[in-house]
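Field reference: "sequence" (input) and "structure" (output). Example, Selenocysteine lyase:
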Amino acid sequence: AGGNPSSSHPTGRKAKELIGSARESLARMLGGRPEDIVFTSGGTEANNMVIHTACRHFHESQCGTGDSQGTPHIVTSSVEHDSVRLPLEQLGREGLAEATFVPVSPRSGQAEVDDVLAAIRPNTCLVSLMLANNETGVIMPVAELSQRIGALNQRRAAEGLPRVLVHTDAAQMIGKGRVDVQELGVDYLTIVGHKFHGPRIGALYVRGPGTATPLHPMLFGGGQERSFRPGTENTPMVAGLGQAAELVSKNWEAYEAHMRDVRDYLEAMLEASFGKQRICFNSHFKGSKRLCNTCNFSILGPGLQGRRVLAHCKVLLASVGAACHSEKGDRPSPVLLSCGIPLEVARNALRLSVGRGTARADVDRAVQDLVQAVEQLERDQA
């Protein structure tokens, strides 16, 4: 793996083979083709690349038509990761794109398909909807959305309107449930290695990059990754990502069943330890499916803000929301507020995630740690 994959010597050829094998492994995991996989530094870069591509493709599709639709417009949800939300907000400030953030339904926790479709305009070039939310675990109706947009694109083509591309950030879903790009019908899908026990690297699935589906580079250089993402490849990380993908392909059903069992046990133990009246599960939405590993809950009571509870825990390692937002202090999660969770409940929220190796004994220790933390806080307030 130490050779430069672009070199012709034996070590370079071996590195190139490792990258090719990893590409095949990721494609197999997703039900796609190896040529549809482009390696990136992570999910943030992949998401930004999709947004960049959609805007550029919009402008290129307007050239020579004599019927310009003006500024590109992108539709997304109100609960997306910051690597989707912040680029769109920045493009809006610069006057380079318009964005609509569709609120999720407090009934389902989902961005409803009809609401997303209603936000599409003549100048819409991209719809980006995460496959599963990172805080609530709610799974979004991406397959239905793709199908409906496919039908819409046929009508738009007849009217001379730009194609609406479809992207999903699948960071949270891979390794915890079935992810098949043929079933989802998306043009782009973001892959994040560390979310399924791989290294901190990512990839972007593109349905026929540069042919069936546009893809424009944000970087220019040596021509690696077919010039879509130039820069000397990080062969060890890419190879590790491929190995993690192989494990998911072979074992995802067993992983999912184990994590769901342990997560359900966790929720039962929380209710048994604190009482049903004191525990509010923030990710239980009637009729919506959710990830097998995620438990977002609040322990009700004054002075029991999530961050304060965690600060009094001795063994539990957890977050009040998304780990990449951990510096935002005691402000309640905007995602929970968007889902209709009351302010006083959202302030007390904790997010616990179980993994492949989490056992019921680990849950017992974590819940006992929470119990002693709450007891200590209540004694301090007395």
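Strands lie at 37-40, 73-77, 98-102, 124-128, 165-169, 188-192, 202-206, 279-281, 294-299, 349-353.
The chain has two domains: 10-248, 252-380.
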